[in-house]
């Protein structure tokens, strides 16, 4: 058997589960054509896998989803916002006064990922805990 760092055992389990969930959600956007189907449900799938790996409880599932949402802000929102502040920002297809648009789009993406990732992590964690308890009992 493999050693799984659960969210109950150590707080780093939530961080790992968030990173796994975000990575899977991102990977769901990559394949051409099927990304129209896998992209919208990618955060749920990522949260489900991350939550099941961490055996997350409902409160920890919310933290996993929030971590996934923060990853979106860090990976997408901050670099685009900083790029807009530089002379290279003129290459972006945005109006010079469109700084609010970047924040709004990032906030919407963060909220979407947080909600679906949290639901997926709670469902995955519950199923994982049920599987563990039935195999032990």
Itemize the secondary structure elements and their pairings:
Layout: H1 12-27, H2 35-54, H3 58-85, H4 99-136
Helix pairs in contact: 1-2, 1-3, 2-3, 2-4, 3-4
Task: Walk me through what this model shows.
The structure is a single chain. This protein is mostly helical. Helices cover 74% and strands 0% of the residues. The chain has helices at 12-27, 35-54, 58-85, 99-136. The radius of gyration is 17 Å and the shape is elongated. The model has no long low-confidence stretch (mean pLDDT 84).
- Percent strand: under 5%
Biggest beta sheet attributes:
none
Helix-strand makeup class: mainly alpha
Number of strands: 0
Molecular shape: elongated
| SSE pattern, N- to C-terminal | HHHH
User: Termini separation (Å)?
Assistant: 18 Å
Please tell me the overall pLDDT.
84
Unreliable residue runs: none
Helix content: over 70%
Rg, rounded, reads 17 Å
- Given the structure, what is the number of helices? 4
In short:
The chain is an all-alpha fold and 137 residues long. It contains 4 helices and no strands.
What labels describe this entry?
74% helix, single chain, 137 residues
């Amino acid at each position: 058997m493999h050693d799984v760092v659960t969210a109950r055992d150590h707080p780093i389990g939530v961080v790992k589960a968030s990173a796994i969930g975000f990575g899977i959600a991102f990977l769901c956007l990559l394949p051409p054509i099927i990304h129209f189907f896998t992209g919208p449900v990618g955060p749920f799938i990522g949260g489900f896998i991350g939550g099941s790996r961490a055996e997350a409880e409902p409160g920890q599932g919310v933290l996993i989803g929030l971590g996934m949402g923060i990853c979106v802000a860090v990976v997408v929102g901050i670099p685009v916002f900083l790029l807009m502040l530089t002379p290279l920002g003129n290459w972006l297809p945005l109006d010079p006064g469109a700084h609010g648009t970047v924040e709004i789009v990032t906030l919407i993406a963060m909220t979407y990922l947080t909600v679906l990732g949290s639901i997926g992590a709670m469902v995955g964690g519950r199923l994982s805990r049920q599987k563990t308890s039935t195999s032990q009992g």
